[in-house]
Amino acid sequence: MRLQRHGRKNYAYYHIVVAHSEAPRDGRYIERLGSYNPNTNPATVTLNFERALQWLDFGAQPTDTVRSILSHEGVLLMKHLKGGVKKGAFSEEEAQRRFDAWKADKVKGLEKIAKEQADKKVAAAKARLAEEEKINEAKAKAVAEKRQAKIEAEAQAIKEAAEAKAAEATAEETPAAE
User: Fold this and answer.
1) 5, 47, 77, 84: most buried, per Cβ within 10 A?
2) Per-residue pLDDT, 175
């Protein structure tokens, strides 16, 4: 059992296949069991659980990566529990109950992780928004100060012009009074 590479450069995804040990990596295979896409977060795995378990029972040897994927999906745990049933350590129902409890615990853990990631994303968005609001407030303050300075300059210019006109008018009236 191994991975067969597909996809384009820098964006690989893999088929999980059962192949003869001497077959090329991307060559002929006996059966395709599923796929693995590490490009998503979290990585996406589709797997035919029953066939993977059956191939392990037949004695197929998974590569390290496929072993990790099978362990993550619970195939190796089910193989272990089936071994306990064969030895008579516990019943088939007990094995299924243990597997279901493990699966429920795993799903709960994954939901918790997904919730934490969503909360982090929301907190980061709020932080970015607050930072952007601070920046916008500073820009608005600078623009308001600039406008105020411009208005004051215009008012000063009008005042000076009025004073100059008044001075001119008084200068013209003074010689007429003499």
Assistant:
1) 47
2) 59
Phi, psi of 22 (to 5 degrees): -90, -5
Note whether 16 and 3 are within 8 A (CB).
yes
**Positions of E strands within 9-161:** 11-18, 31-37, 44-47
Question: Model confidence over 83-114: pLDDT tens digits?
Answer: 999 998 889 999 999 999 999 999 999 899 98
| 41 vs 58: CA distance, rounded Å | 33
CA distance 100 to 67: 20
135-138-140-144 Cα dihedral, nearest 10 degrees: -170
Q: Looking up tokens 């916008």, which residue turns up?
A: 136
User: Does pTM surpass 0.70?
Assistant: no
Which domains does the chain possess? 2-89 (3.30.1320.10)
Q: Is 2 exposed, middle or buried (0-12, 13-18, 19+ CB in 10 A)?
A: buried
Is 1:55 a contact under the CB 8 Å cutoff?
Answer: yes
